[in-house]
Amino acid sequence: MESSLGTDRFFTHPRAQVAIHREFAQREMSSHRHEFIEIVFILAGQGRHVTGEVSHDVGPGDVFVINNRRSHGYEQTHGLHLVNVLVRDDALKSARRELGSLPGFHALFTLEPVRWRRRDYTARLRLTPREMRQVSEWLDALEAETRGDQDGGRFLACSWLMLVVGFLARCHGERLEHPEKHDDRLARLLSQIDANPESEYPLAIMAREVAMSERSFLRHFREVTGCSPTDYVIRARVREAMHILDDGDCRLPITEIAFRCGFNDSNYFARQFRRVTGMAPRQYRDAL
User: Fold this and answer.
1) What are the DSSP calls for 207-260, one per residue?
2) What are the distances in angstroms from CA 112 to CA 70, 119, 142, 236, 269?
3) Interior CA angle at 280 toward 279 and 283, to 5°?
């Protein structure tokens, strides 16, 4: 029977956004789910990682992400030493706001689960020994902040997390060597939307950039992101508006913010902002 691992077991504080869990000799482990996102770093040893009905070999340098909707486990482990970085949804959303413009971010956090379902492992991320040594130093610093009780520890832990995720996104982006592949093209399109949400993104042009028919593009886009291209663009524009509103010194009128983020109608902007965030733009600003 599949088990579920809750946050209370690993997160030392209710407001903690990230935690570290090490396994120096990972044993075989039956399928289980988390209430958080897990970034797995394989430091040494060998084994098979099982997710759903598929499995793949893992070894030193491998990095993969397990979201909170996917079960996984380990088989045939031999000296498997790994570090799990456990991340709450809110922390990853913050990372996406800052790093979503990197194609490698979407390749790792958005596209990888879909590739696993298709048994496509060609785009897996494997760090070089030098890259892994660098990441290991940052993970040590992150862990020190999560286990200490110094003021600002939770903030600094999130800062180290951002550094690690940004580094992984860059490494993965540099390894997107197949621009003719639909997934690599889609990763670049998603990063383009996140970086410039105010631009116009007609369906025909987006489908052409991913080298797919409009019908296939719509189906593939929803499979990967869980929403339509139109909704993705709207959410990216709302995230940009939130970023502007987060600046306490910015007193731009709501209408001006709407226009800057690509909305031509401030009333429509307010409706979409409420749909995504649960509150009106002015309420969001006043709550800061």
Assistant:
1) HHHTTS-HHHHHHHHHHHHSS-HHHHHHHHHHHHHHHHHH-TT----HHHHHHH
2) 12, 10, 24, 20, 32
3) 85
Whether 139 contacts 85, CB under 8 Å: yes
Question: Does pTM surpass 0.85?
Answer: no
The radius of gyration computed from the CA coordinates of the chain, to the nearest angstrom, equals: 20
- What are the start-end ranges of the H helices in the chain? 89-99, 103-106, 112-117, 129-147, 153-174, 182-195, 203-209, 214-225, 229-246, 254-260, 266-277, 281-287
Whether residue 177 contacts residue 188, with contact meaning beta carbons closer than 8 Å, is answered with no
Amino acid 281 reads P
What sign does the dihedral 136-8-157-64 (CA atoms) show?
A: positive
d(CA 252, CA 110): 33
Nearest to 59 by CA among 32, 86, 37, 41: 41
Residue-wise pLDDT for 104-163, tens only, equals 898 888 887 676 666 655 557 899 999 999 999 999 999 999 887 778 888 999 999 999
Q: How far apart are CA 159 and CA 191, in angstroms?
A: 21
